[in-house]
Write a structure and sequence with these properties.
Layout: E1 5-6, H1 7-12, H2 14-22, E2 27-31, E3 34-39, H3 42-56, H4 58-72, H5 79-86
Parallel strand pairs: 1-2
Antiparallel strand pairs: 2-3
């Protein structure tokens, strides 16, 4: 769990915390009578949105889980083998 910093500290050292978030370290900020908020980089935020979208789609989620099971069973082929099977080989 992130340890929140108070808003006055975040305001004072805003660019420091902005750089931390931009480097992939989420920053939790709280204010008086305000629930904490999280500052993330745009890349991190978009990654979370994409993950949420994938796991919200039952077909996509099931397909991903099936693929992971295949990997665990070593039921995999190389990219070259897949391209040959699909007729994409040069």
């Amino acid at each position: 769990m992130l340890q929140p910093i108070v808003a006055s500290q975040a305001r004072k050292d805003f660019f420091h915390y902005l750089n931390l978030a931009n480097q992939g370290q989420p920053v939790s900020i709280k204010g008086r009578n305000i629930n904490p908020v999280i500052m993330l980089s745009q890349e991190e935020y978009e990654g979370w949105l994409e993950t949420l979208e994938i796991f919200s789609n039952k077909n996509l989620s099931n397909s991903l889980q099936a693929g992971l099971k295949d990997v665990k069973k070593k039921n995999i082929v190389s990219q070259k083998q897949a391209e040959e099977f699909l007729g994409w080989a040069k």
